[in-house]
């Protein structure tokens, strides 16, 4: 191989030499504009803009100054850019970033230093270059190659002082400054090129199937990196370039910017071997003989004709025709809507998906629809179904359309909205919630709570009245929703089988709608849908963008922070309604009054009232529908009052940084605009709840303060701004101990996104989160399904009474824990509803007919004794609704002005007098309600609901007697319902409903207490110092609420070593809290246990409190517990008297014991005289008790 002779063909160097000497752009110094000149410009601009506006407020002045600053900065930047544009920069040494990491093509032209240049010039001509070093040489031709000027370039070498002649880059320099000389490798002899082979039809899986021409083939087989030659305009040009590439492997090409050809990949030995292996595996033998005639891969004329449309664009699964009848009869109902309603509907994304959704429903028995917040699926899907004939007696699907909602507010408001949109068919839409409904024989669309539909399933398992079931808000995963989905999936199969036997029975359709993508529990649950996963139909989501603003800091007092943010937002934000999410009713009332005191309210009457204030933990949980899983019979949690400056008006405290998030570039509302503040929570009367959908007074801003009721389903018109505290109050239930606590905790990410979505329903919106993005990242993705955190004895009894004996095999979307199931079955056995083998007893079947917890069902079952049934119905209604009385710590009005000076004024004296009078009135009301028994909270509830029945003006009565009007209204409705159920099940047992009942007799009062004990027999506690083994107490309690009790079953999970961890205490709201410690009873029957939230300043574990009902004696307990697994009898004590007869009988005294946990010693009850008989299998068993 001849020695390498470098040629200088660098045209760019010649061009650079031709131009003038390089200009150093850093020589000229660019000085900043003088301050005086800048100020003069600013003043001119300000005067020019001011002349356009006569009156400028301080707020506009700030914006004007900001605008002028920005404009001056932009002008300076433009001048600087113009100067930079005039400077010339040598870009010859630069390289495209596309070549980075491309190995051998990655060589750039680097100017060599004068020190290394000499060494390069000295060594380059005489050096022998190996193949590896050749890889580092430049192989690109310059642009002159295109114009056939290659020879000219070779003849005219370029003289460049201080630049290496042949090498692309200087030699590498070591740490000592001397060049590093690489060890040369032995030059390999080039192999003779094989004869050129014409292209064959297919070469397996090779990477270089195509070649440009024969010369390329030579280069590829030569070994080195081969490049495709450029297309030349004449034959001579192509010959020149091919000669040079074969003579000399180091040739130049165009730069990447000028080149349009692709670089062929380098030959790899591994690739060749792999290609050979693949060809051998598939039996392909490539031709090595020169092919004289090119064979075509296929003949277009012989190509088979086929329809490829379906292959290229197959139908989605929900549109594919199933095994059903594809020739179904078309049916439609024409609805005439007003123009404005029709235009509003067309703006909803889901309306554009009507064809896809309806085809999916027609073609499948069950489908899942996912539509993000704002798609309009809740209001539009029932209308799609109605227009397609569902619910029409003349159509193929005459049954009603059932739409279930988890909340009553949503069921009522959605029915009203759909009725308004259906034009002339508005009377076809009805709703049914507990104690209230508008359904009639005309009804075609029925909105209801999921609990209502479950009751209907219990009466008619095939749901023969309905043709389609739509389960909305399935992502909320309430207990009823989960059970309903499981039941409906089986009823769909049942109706399909029935329709095959009898064509008059129409199949049932099931639609599950979810606003989040947490649908794998439905779609991928093999036990839920046995015939394969239902298709998922995606409806378009929110139609308007929502900008989310996180807080810089997360404040602990989120109510105070909400007040500050809403106040600032009202002053600075453009027109638009606000929705504020809080955790409970009392926070809503607190914030509502503060906003009305700070701004001008539209409702003048409420603004001047004194403000009631309490901590969030004092407030009751939002009471929702009575669920199968047991009633919420809890009152309020314990906790002290918050002391924050509630009436402090924030002025002049605006943080300029925080104001940026309220600066939306639009004109803000006038700060004197009135505020129209409305609350929204579940305990609010329906009439009050629907006010949020009304148009606010003109010239006011609507501010809705809501709990998580407003998180889903509801679309409040005009909401543009959402303020989210990021928290929610939920009742948490310990499945092991049965202890409830009301925890204000962070919501999930899914809930936070749902809340933000409220701002994007009717237009672009903004969501202001009162927590930082760092806190948000710690949120759980989704909330746990309710079935994992609630008692399920009602669910278990309902299923077993329907014949589903193995509850664990029921197709739950999320199965309940085995621990929860075991606890539920244990309670049902204690109540006598299940046998020891787990079969439903006659009592159990009767208990399942009541829409209540099995405990209340047991009370109704035995309540007919001594004519007590009307009283028991009233008592059960009161206990089931719960939260009847206003707690004493909520009756004090807080002063509307802070007494900073410490001077006791006349107004302070009047407030103190009013406060004392209210406490006296409260004590008097409590005494009146507890006149039958001053130790029984259950009888206090009975007295209050009976007194409510006598009241002529119920609202004023509730206000005077410190009662919750909505709770009593609901309890009265439940009384009516239960009276009807008892009359239907036991004709003649109870007379028709009477609101006014006579005073109960002494005998009836005693019987009532025993009936309550029977319903809560396992919820019993013994005074710690009177227990069989009294614990050691460090100090004597001074108050009744400090007297410790021990429960029959453990009140805390895990081993409780300390006595304080085992003990429970009476709740301060109980009548027992008024007694002295010595007067406290030995035994207490309680409704439930509750633990307050942990203190933020103390490490002490919060006490567990019990809500007492009655105080039975030991004899009463042993008599009522007889026949349950809770009571065991010991061996005879004293003398035994043998009695005559067969089998053998004896009379003796025995000691019964209440046994809780397995293996515990139990609580000995008073001894009883009994007659026992000898059983061959079980030994001595009790035949009867003797006095």
UniProtKB/TrEMBL annotation:
Which SUPFAM superfamilies does the protein's record reference? P-loop containing nucleoside triphosphate hydrolases
Low complexity composition-biased segments: 112-127
Keyword Nucleotide-binding (UniProt) = yes
Q: Which UniProt keywords apply?
A: ATP-binding, Helicase, Hydrolase, Nucleotide-binding
Q: What class of enzyme is it?
A: hydrolase
Q: Name one Pfam family in it.
A: HA2_C
| CDD domains (alphabetical) | DEXHc_DHX37, SF2_C_RHA
Polar residues composition bias: which ranges?
A: 88-98
- Disordered: annotated span: 1-65, 86-133, 157-270, 632-661
Question: What EC number(s) is this enzyme filed under?
Answer: 3.6.4.13
Quote the biased-composition stretches of kind Basic residues, using this chain's numbering. 1-15, 181-191
Q: Name one GO molecular function term.
A: ATP binding
State the similarity comment: Belongs to the DEAD box helicase family. DEAH subfamily.
Spell out the protein name for this chain.
RNA helicase
User: From which organism does this entry originate?
Assistant: Aspergillus wentii DTO 134E9
């Amino acid at each position: 191989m001849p020695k390498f002779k470098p040629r200088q063909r660098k045209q760019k160097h010649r061009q650079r030499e031709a131009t003038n000497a390089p200009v150093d752009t850093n020589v000229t110094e660019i000085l900043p504009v003088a301050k005086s000149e800048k100020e003069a410009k600013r003043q001119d601009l300000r005067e020019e803009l001011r002349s356009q506006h006569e009156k400028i407020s301080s707020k506009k002045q700030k914006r004007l100054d900001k605008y002028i600053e920005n404009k001056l900065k932009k002008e300076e930047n433009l001048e600087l850019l113009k100067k930079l544009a005039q400077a010339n920069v040598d870009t010859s040494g630069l390289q495209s970033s596309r070549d980075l990491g491309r190995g051998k093509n990655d060589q750039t032209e680097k100017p060599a230093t004068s020190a290394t240049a000499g060494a390069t010039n000295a060594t380059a001509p005489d050096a022998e270059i190996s193949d590896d070093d050749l890889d580092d040489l430049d192989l690109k031709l310059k642009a002159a190659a295109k114009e056939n000027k290659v020879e000219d370039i070779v003849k005219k070498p370029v003289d460049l002082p201080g630049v290496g002649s042949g090498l692309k880059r200087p030699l590498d320099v070591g740490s000592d400054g001397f060049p590093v000389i690489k060890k040369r490798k032995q030059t390999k002899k080039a192999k003779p090129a094989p004869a050129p082979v014409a292209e064959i039809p297919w070469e397996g899986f090779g990477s270089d199937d195509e070649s440009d021409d024969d010369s390329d083939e030579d280069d590829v087989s030569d070994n080195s990196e081969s490049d495709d030659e450029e297309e030349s305009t004449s034959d001579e040009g192509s010959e020149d370039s091919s000669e040079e590439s074969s003579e000399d492997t180091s040739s130049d090409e165009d730069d990447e910017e000028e080149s349009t050809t692709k670089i062929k990949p380098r030959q790899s030995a591994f690739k060749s071997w792999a290609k050979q292996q693949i060809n051998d595996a598939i039996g392909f033998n490539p031709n090595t003989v020169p092919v004289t005639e090119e064979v075509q891969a296929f003949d277009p004329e012989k190509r088979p004709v086929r329809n490829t449309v379906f292959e290229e664009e197959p139908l989605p699964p929900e549109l594919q025709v199933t095994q059903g009848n594809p020739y179904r009869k078309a049916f439609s109902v024409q609805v005439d809507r007003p123009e404005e309603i029709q235009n509003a509907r067309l703006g909803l994304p889901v309306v554009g998906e009507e064809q896809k959704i309806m085809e999916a429903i027609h073609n499948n028995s069950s489908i899942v629809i996912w539509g993000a917040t704002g798609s309009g699926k809740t209001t539009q899907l029932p209308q799609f179904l109605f227009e397609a004939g569902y619910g029409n007696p003349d159509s193929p699907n005459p049954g009603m359309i059932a739409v279930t909602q988890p909340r009553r507010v949503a069921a009522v408001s959605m029915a009203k909205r759909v009725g308004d949109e259906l034009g002339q068919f508005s009377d076809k839409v009805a709703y049914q919630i507990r104690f209230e409904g508008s359904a009639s024989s005309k009804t075609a669309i029925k909105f209801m709570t999921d609990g209502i539909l479950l009751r209907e399933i219990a009466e008619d398992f095939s749901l023969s009245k309905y043709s389609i079931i739509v389960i909305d808000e399935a992502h909320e995963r309430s207990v009823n929703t989960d059970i309903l989905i499981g039941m409906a999936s089986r009823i769909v199969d049942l109706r399909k089988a029935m329709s095959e036997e009898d064509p008059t029975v129409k199949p049932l359709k099931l639609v599950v709608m979810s606003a989040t993508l947490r649908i794998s529990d439905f779609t991928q649950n093999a036990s839920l849908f046995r015939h394969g996963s239902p298709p998922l139909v995606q409806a378009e989501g929110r139609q308007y963008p929502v900008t989310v603003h996180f807080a810089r800091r997360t404040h602990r007092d989120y109510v105070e922070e909400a007040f500050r943010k809403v106040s600032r937002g009202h002053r600075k934000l453009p027109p638009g309604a606000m929705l504020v999410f809080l955790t409970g009713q009392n926070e809503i009332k607190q914030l509502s009054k503060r906003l009305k005191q700070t701004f001008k309210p539209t409702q003048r009457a409420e603004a001047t009232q004194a403000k009631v204030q309490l901590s969030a933990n004092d407030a009751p949980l939002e009471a929702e529908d009575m669920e199968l899983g047991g009633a919420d019979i809890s009152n309020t949690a314990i906790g002290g009052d918050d002391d924050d400056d509630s009436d402090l008006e924030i002025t002049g405290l605006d943080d300029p940084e925080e104001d940026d998030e309220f600066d939306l570039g639009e004109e803000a509302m006038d700060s004197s605009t009135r505020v129209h503040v409305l609350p929204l929570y579940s305990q609010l009367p329906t009439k009050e709840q629907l006010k949020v959908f009304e148009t606010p007074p003109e010239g006011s801003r609507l501010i809705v303060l809501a709990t998580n009721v407003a998180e889903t389903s509801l679309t409040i018109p005009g909401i543009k701004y959402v303020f989210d505290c990021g928290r929610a109050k939920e009742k948490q239930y310990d499945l092991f101990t049965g202890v409830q606590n009301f925890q204000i905790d962070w919501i999930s990410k899914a809930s936070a996104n749902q809340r933000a979505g409220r701002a994007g329903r009717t237009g672009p919106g903004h969501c202001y989160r009162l927590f930082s993005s760092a806190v948000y990242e710690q949120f759980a993705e989704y909330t746990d399904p309710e079935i994992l955190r609630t008692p399920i004895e009602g669910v278990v009894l309902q299923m077993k009474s329907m014949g589903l004996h193995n509850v664990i095999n029921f197709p739950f979307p999320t199965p309940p824990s085995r621990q929860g199931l075991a606890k539920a079955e244990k309670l049902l056995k204690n109540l006598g509803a299940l046998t020891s083998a787990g079969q439903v007893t006659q009592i159990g079947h009767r208990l399942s007919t009541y829409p209540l917890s099995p405990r209340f069902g047991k009370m109704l079952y035995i309540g007919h004794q001594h004519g007590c049934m009307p009283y028991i119905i009233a008592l059960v209604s009161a206990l089931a609704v719960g939260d009847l009385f206003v707690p004493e710590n909520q009756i004090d009005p807080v002063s509307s002005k802070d007494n900073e000076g410490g001077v006791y004024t006349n107004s302070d004296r009047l407030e103190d007098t009013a406060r004392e009078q209210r406490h006296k009135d409260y004590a008097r009301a409590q005494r009146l309600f507890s006149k039958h028994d001053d130790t029984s909270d259950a009888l206090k509830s009975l007295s209050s609901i009976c007194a409510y029945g006598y009241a002529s003006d119920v609202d004023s009565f509730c206000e005077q007697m410190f009662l919750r009007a909505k709770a009593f209204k609901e309890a009265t409705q439940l009384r009516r319902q239960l009276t009807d159920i008892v009359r239907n099940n036991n004709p003649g047992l109870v007379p028709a409903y009477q609101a006014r009942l006579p005073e109960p007799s002494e005998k009836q009062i005693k019987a009532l207490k025993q009936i309550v004990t029977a319903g809560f027999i396992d919820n019993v506690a013994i005074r710690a110092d009177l227990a069989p083994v009294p614990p050691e107490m460090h100090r004597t309690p001074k108050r009744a609420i400090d007297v410790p009790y021990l429960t029959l079953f453990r009140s805390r999970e895990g081993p409780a070593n300390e006595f304080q961890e085992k003990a429970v205490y009476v709740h301060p709201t109980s009548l027992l809290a008024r007694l002295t410690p010595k007067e406290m009873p030995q035994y207490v029957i309680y409704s439930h246990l509750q633990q307050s939230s942990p203190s933020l300043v103390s490490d002490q574990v919060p006490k567990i409190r019990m809500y007492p009902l009655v105080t039975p004696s030991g004899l009463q307990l042993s008599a009522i517990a007889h026949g349950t697994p809770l009571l065991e009898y010991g061996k005879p004590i004293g003398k035994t008297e043998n009695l005559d007869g067969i089998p053998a009988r004896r009379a003796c005294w025995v000691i019964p014991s209440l046994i809780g946990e397995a293996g515990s010693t139990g609580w000995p009850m008073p001894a009883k005289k009994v007659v026992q008989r000898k059983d061959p299998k079980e030994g001595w068993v009790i035949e009867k008790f003797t006095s």
